[in-house]
Design a protein that fits this description.
Blueprint: E1 3-9, H1 15-18, H2 24-29, E2 38-44, H3 50-57, E3 62-68, H4 73-88, E4 94-97, H5 99-103, H6 105-109, E5 116-118, H7 122-134, E6 145-148, E7 154-156, H8 178-185, E8 190-192, E9 195-197, H9 207-210, E10 215-217, H10 220-234, E11 238-241, H11 250-265, E12 274-279, H12 281-284, H13 289-298, E13 300-308, H14 312-317, H15 324-334, E14 340-347, H16 354-370, E15 374-376, E16 380-381, H17 389-396, H18 425-437, H19 452-461, H20 466-474, H21 482-504
Parallel strand pairs: 1-2, 1-3, 3-4, 4-5, 8-11, 11-12, 12-13, 13-14, 14-15, 14-16
Antiparallel strand pairs: 5-6, 6-7, 9-10
Bound molecules: cobalamin and iron/sulfur cluster.
Length: 505
C-alpha cells in the first residue's frame, strides 16, 4: 500500500473566503515528488469540508504532514492546525515550508509541534526529505533542511541553491478536486507562474531575503503551453501570471503576447484567452504607444503596479524611486488602451507624516480622474515583514520583535495596527478607515467575488454610498467610523469562526 503525504494550505485571510484560488505553493512543492509511489492528499483550508478530510487522516498511516505558510493569518492557522495534528497523533511528522518558514526557520522549528523546516524550493528539497523519511534515514546533509535530533537539538544545513525553473513541468493540478477551482475561476483569473524573484530592492518586500534580487523565469513557450493545456483540460480562459514582476525582460513578454495573439486570432471572441500580471512601473515606462496597443490586442486584461505612496520622500525611503511625473504621465497614456491598471498604495509607516498621506490621497484622486480604467487597490497598512529592511527599521522605531511563531499572527494589514507603537488610537482609526474605505472608492469590489454577477450587484448597491466615502477619504475624515467598525467585526468574526472549526476537530 502507498504511503500517504498530506499537504496543508492554511487560509491566508478573509479574501480566501470570497474567491478560491489554487494553492500554488503546495502544488509547486509537490511537482517533483514521485506521485506513483505516494498517495498525496492536499488539504486546502479554503475549501468546504477540509476539516473532515484532515480528521480522516488521523486514522491513516501518514508519512508526513506538510504545511505551507506566509506570515500572518496563514502562519496563524498553520500553527493551530499543526498543533491539532500533534495533539491527535503524537508520532506524526510535521514539516513546514514557504515564505514565513524561510524567514524564521529556527524560531518556527522551536515550536514543539513542528519537526522539520524547509528553507528553499520544494521541487528540490521535498522529494529528498520524503525519500529519507520513507527509508527512515537521517535528514542530515540536505541543503535547506532544519530538523531536531533525538535530544531536541536543532540541526541545519544552509539554504539550498535556486533551481533552474526554465523548463518546470506543469503543477500536478490533478491532485486537487479541480471542480471547485474551475467553478471559481470561470469568470475570474486562474493562477499561473511565469518567473520567481525580483531585481528590485523595496525595503518592505520579502524578495529582499527570498530571492536575493535574482529573477529566474520559465520559457515563455512553456507558460503559453501550460495555459493551453489548462484550457484544453478545464476550459478556463483568463489567467493571472502571479510573478512579482512580469516585465523584467521586455522581448520575452512580447514573444509571449504574440503567442497569445496568434492563438486568439483563431478563436471566436467569447473563447479568447486573456492574461493579467504585476509589473514594476520602471519597466512599463519603456513601452511606447504601439507596444501598449500590441499588448492590449494580444489579450492583456489588467496590470498591477506598486506606487506605494504619493510622496516622493516616502517612495525614496521604501527604495522605490519612481517620479511623480512618470506615474501621472503613464497613467494618462495607458488610459487610451483597453488595459485596466491597478495601483497599490501602502500607508502607516513610522516615517509617514500627515502631509505624505495627503499626497497619496491627492495622487489617488488624480489617477482616478485621469483614467476611468484604473483601480486603486485597498490602501493596506504596511506590515513589517520579517527579514526586510523595513522590519529592522520598525524594530528601531519601537516595534517589539516577535519571540514565537504565534506572535506573527498579527502581521497582517488588517491586524497589524494594534502592534505599531507609532499609532495612537486616533491614528489607528484613521489608517484603518483609509484601508477599509479604499475598498469602496472605485469599482474594484466587483472583482472580489468569484461570481461577477454578485460583484456587480454589490458595486451597484454602493453607487449611492460611494460619493460619501470618497469625500471623507479625500479629507481624511473617518467619522462616523462605520467602515472601521464593520471591517474589524468581519475580521474578528472570520478569525474566531475559523479557529472554532479547528478547535472542534
Ligand atoms: C497568489 C498570492 C496570493 C493569493 C493567494 C494566496 C493563497 N492563499 O495561496 C491572494 C490574492 C489571496 C493573496 C493574498 C494576500 N497576500 Co499574497 N501572494 C500571492 C503570490 C503572488 C503568489 C503565491 C504563490 O503561489 N507563489 C508560487 C509558489 C511556487 O511559491 P512559494 O510560496 O515561494 O513556494 C515555494 C517554496 O517556498 C516552497 N514551499 C512553499 N511551501 C512549502 C511547504 C513545504 C512543506 C515545503 C517542503 C516547501 C514549500 O516550495 C515552493 C515551490 O518552490 C505571492 C508572491 C509570490 N510571487 O510568491 C504573494 C504573497 C505570498 N502574498 C503576500 C501577502 C502579504 C498577501 C496579503 C496578506 C496582502 C494583504 N495585505 O492583504 C493577502 C492576504 C489577504 C487575504 N487572503 O485575505 C506576501 C507575503 C509576505 C510575507 N512576508 O509573508 C507575498 C509574498 C507577496 C509580497 N510581495 O509580499 N496572495
Ligand atoms: S518591485 Fe515589487 S516585488 Fe520587486 S522588490 Fe519591489 S515590492 Fe518587491
Amino acid at each position: 500500500m502507498k504511503k500517504k503525504i498530506v499537504f496543508i494550505s492554511p487560509l491566508s485571510g478573509i479574501y480566501d473566503k470570497l474567491y478560491k484560488t489554487i494553492p500554488l505553493p503546495a502544488l509547486s512543492a509537490l511537482r517533483e515528488v514521485d506521485l506513483k509511489r505516494y498517495d498525496v492528499l492536499i488539504i486546502d483550508q479554503k475549501i468546504q469540508g477540509w476539516e473532515y478530510l484532515l480528521k480522516k487522516t488521523f486514522e491513516e498511516d501518514v508519512l508526513v504532514y506538510c504545511v505551507s505558510a506566509f506570515t500572518g493569518y496563514q502562519s496563524h492557522f498553520g500553527a493551530l492546525i499543526s498543533k491539532k495534528i500533534k495533539e491527535k497523533r503524537k508520532n506524526s511528522t510535521i514539516l513546514w515550508g514557504g515564505v514565513h518558514a524561510c524567514a524564521r526557520p529556527i524560531q518556527t522549528l522551536n515550536e514543539k509541534y513542528i519537526d522539520i523546516v524547509c528553507v528553499g524550493e520544494g521541487e528540490k528539497i521535498l522529494p529528498e526529505i520524503i525519500k529519507r523519511l520513507d527509508k527512515k534515514k537521517s535528514l542530515k546533509g540536505i541543503f535547506g533542511v532544519y530538523f531536531k535530533d533525538r535530544q531536541g537539538k536543532i540541526i541545519y544545513f544552509e539554504k539550498s541553491l535556486p533551481i533552474d525553473i526554465s523548463k518546470l513541468k506543469d503543477p500536478p493540478y490533478d491532485l486537487l478536486d479541480m471542480k471547485v477551482y474551475i467553478q471559481e475561476s470561470k469568470e475570474n483569473d486562474f493562477y499561473i507562474e511565469g518567473a520567481r524573484g525580483c531585481i528590485y530592492n523595496c525595503s518592505f518586500c520579502y524578495n529582499q531575503y527570498y530571492s536575493n534580487k535574482k529573477w529566474r523565469f520559465r520559457d515563455e513557450k512553456e507558460i503559453f503551453d501550460n495555459i493551453i493545456r489548462i484550457y484544453k483540460s478545464y476550459g478556463l480562459k483568463n489567467y493571472f501570471i502571479i510573478d512579482d514582476s512580469f516585465f523584467v525582460n521586455k522581448s520575452r513578454v512580447f514573444r509571449f503576447a504574440k503567442m497569445v495573439y496568434q492563438e486568439n486570432f483563431k478563436r471566436k471572441p467569447k473563447d479568447m484567452i486573456s492574461f493579467s500580471c504585476e509589473a514594476n512601473l520602471t519597466h512599463l515606462l519603456l513601452l511606447n504607444d504601439n507596444e501598449l496597443l500590441e499588448l492590449a490586442k494580444s489579450g492583456l486584461k489588467w496590470v498591477a503596479v506598486g506606487i506605494e505612496s504619493g510622496s516622493e520622500r516616502i517612495r525614496k525611503l521604501y527604495n522605490k524611486e519612481i517620479s511623480q511625473d512618470d506615474i501621472i504621465n503613464f497613467n494618462k497614456r495607458i488610459a487610451k488602451y483597453p488595459i485596466k491598471i491597478r495601483y497599490n498604495f501602502i500607508t502607516g509607516s513610522f516615517f509617514e507624516k500627515r502631509s505624505d498621506l495627503k499626497k497619496s490621497i491627492a495622487l489617488i484622486s488624480r489617477l482616478l480622474k485621469d483614467n476611468n480604467n484604473c483601480l486603486i487597490q485597498p490602501m493596506y497598512i504596511t506590515v513589517p515583514y520579517p527579514n526586510t529592511t523595513y522590519f529592522n527599521q520598525a524594530i528601531k522605531a519601537g516595534l517589539k520583535e516577535p519571540k514565537r511563531l504565534c506572535d506573527w499572527s498579527f502581521y497582517d494589514s488588517f491586524r497589524i495596527s494594534k502592534l505599531l507603537p507609532w499609532f495612537s488610537p486616533k491614528k489607528r482609526r484613521l489608517y484603518e478607515f483609509l484601508m477599509y474605505s479604499s475598498y469602496l472608492i472605485d469599482d474594484k469590489i466587483k472583482y472580489y467575488f468569484s461570481s461577477k454577477t454578485f460583484g456587480k450587484i454589490c458595486s451597484f448597491l454602493l453607487v449611492l454610498y460611494k460619493p460619501f466615502v470618497r469625500l471623507r477619504f479625500k479629507y481624511l475624515f473617518p467619522f462616523p467610523n462605520i467602515e472601521v467598525f464593520i471591517g474589524r467585526f468581519l475580521n474578528y468574526y472570520f478569525l474566531k469562526s475559523e479557529e472554532n472549526v479547528i478547535r472542534k476537530i
